[in-house]
Amino acid sequence: MQHYDGTDFPWSKEVVWNLKELFKLSKFRPLQLRAINMTLSGKDLFLVMPTGRGKSLCYQLPAVCSKGFTLVITPLVSLMEDQIMYLQLINVPAAMLNASISKNNAKAVMAGITDPKSPFKLLYVTPEKIAKSKLLMSCLEKAYKAKLLSRIAVDEVHCCSQWGHDFRPDYKLLGILKRQFPKVPLLGLTATATSSVLKDCEKILCVQQPITLSASFNRTNLYYEVQQNSNKCGVLTIIVCVCGLYTTGIVYVFSQKDAELVSSELQKRDILAYPYHANMDPDSKSRVHREWTANKIKVVVATVAFGMGIDKPDVRFVIHHTISKSIENYYQESGRAGRDDASADCIVFFGFSDIFRISTMVVMENVGQQKLLQMVDYCQNLDRCRRSLMAVHFDEVWDDEGCNQMCDTCCRVKDYSTVDITEHAKQVVQIMELAASMDEKLTPLKLVEAWMGKGPAKHRKTIKPTTLSRQQVEAVIVRMLLQGYLREDFSFTPYTTYFYMKLGRKAPLLKIQSHTLSMKMRITDGRSAVVSTCWSQGYITKSLNRCSPVCTPHLDRKKQKCRNFC
Ligand SMILES: Nc1ncnc2c1ncn2[C@H]1C[C@H](O)[C@@H](COP(=O)(O)OP(=O)(O)OP(=O)(O)O)O1
């Protein structure tokens, strides 16, 4: 394999020349040269490389060094437009075919496909075009026969698999390409795919035994941190502080409403923040994107609609106001930070009720629930370094040295201790059994309240209220959910989906005397690195759960309460 890292191939001189003179890059990043040499040798390849590490170069550069053109399948029109704009800038001819281009333009592109002079080196198409346009397939057929179709690149290849985090039905039909054009090397690219997802993609794309190249998922310059979402004021305080520390960043939120609300709260605190979500008109969306890229806007407060194709190198923070729906999503979204290799912060706020908000949203997805719980485990698991949890998820062999104190768990090991929660878990089971005996279903909130001695007396008559704090109560319930002592139960009405708790398959184990259950909990109120920095710079004075100086202008003087959040 290492042989492919060399520069003694017939094409090597041209490759190196183009890297420097055309793409204006001084050297390759890890795995780029290997991938380029392999695809130029005609091998079928899956390239798994973290977001922002330069996957595009691995097909753009070979395209320039090959006869004919490279067909690039990309899911989003905006992604195509960005790439074409960049390629035009460096004088590499490229074209695209999608529903947004004019008929005349499409006609010219179709003619270009079979033109022996190849007026473009890269042709970008959506998977829908491959699935639906017979004309395109017939042109590609002719190009194949004339040896003009040099390579097929399938970007975001994980979209083929239903087990991936972003399945797109039209990707399922892309197997036709390898069946019709078996001699053309295929290059599948993704930032996030487990080995089982790649196996699935292999079948769907009809490639036989492709070579998989995986760059380490570990973005060493990113600092990962999870903050408890205890109240809205605390969350906003930290967001405001982080915005004060850095020049540019993204805040991801759950809904369009949150995007509007959080951005307007940041604006009230003199932070140049704008919302971005799918319901905005295209002009407003591209204006926000453009102005943020040009540093005229400091923060974009966005839903996941602000996604693929964002290539701003100097993003210094990505904050998740609400957890992502999967680790893959989180990795990709947070990975938009620090593309310039300078350090950047990735902070996610984890709130108990958010689990159930998102749960009802992903309930229809094939493995939506399972993926959400993996994300919850990432947030709640204090046993292992955040990076090692991601490594396990992406099937990467992990060495604990790899984190280098760049996550909150590694920085704060002294703040955690293992606590036996067996008796607590038994109390939860008693409450659940009592509710079941009355034929009642408990929502997570009702379960918390009953255990804390609040809510209807009938739910808690057999036990004393717990002595645990609310945060600990929630943590125990989440732990029980993650470990199968509790499980989710959904109920659908024509208007909404309700989420209830049920006893899980492992609940009977708690009846066995010798069975124990433990978890790591925070024992001190030590400050995280991000909070410490805010602290040392005078942004935060007391507890994060109180109003800080940043909130002071918004205090209602009479009630001494924050008008918006407390
Ligand atoms: N060898 C290199 N040296 C320096 N910069 C590079 C190199 N290769 C690529 N880049 C730059 C170009 C882009 O600005 C940036 C990201 O490249 P890009 O190909 O868009 O990433 P990607 O495709 O892996 O990310 P995503 O998964 O988000 O699509 O890195």
Automatic annotation (TrEMBL):
Protein's name according to its UniProt entry: ATP-dependent DNA helicase
Taxonomic path: Eukaryota, Metazoa, Chordata, Craniata, Vertebrata
Subcellular location: Nucleus
Entry keywords, A to Z: Acetylation, ATP-binding, DNA-binding, Helicase, Hydrolase, Isomerase, Metal-binding, Nucleotide-binding, Nucleus, Phosphoprotein, Zinc
E.C. number: 5.6.2.4
Cofactors demanded by this protein: Zn(2+); Mg(2+); Mn(2+)
Family under the similarity heading: Belongs to the helicase family. RecQ subfamily.
Catalytic activity: ATP + H2O = ADP + phosphate + H(+); Couples ATP hydrolysis with the unwinding of duplex DNA by translocating in the 3'-5' direction; dATP + H2O = dADP + phosphate + H(+)
GO CC terms in record: chromosome; cytoplasm; nucleus
PROSITE patterns noted in UniProt: HELICASE_ATP_BIND_1, HELICASE_CTER
Occurrences of domain Helicase C-terminal (ranges): 235-383
GO biological process, one term: double-strand break repair via homologous recombination
GO molecular function, one term: DNA binding
Pfam family, one: Helicase_C
Helicase ATP-binding domain: residues covered: 36-211
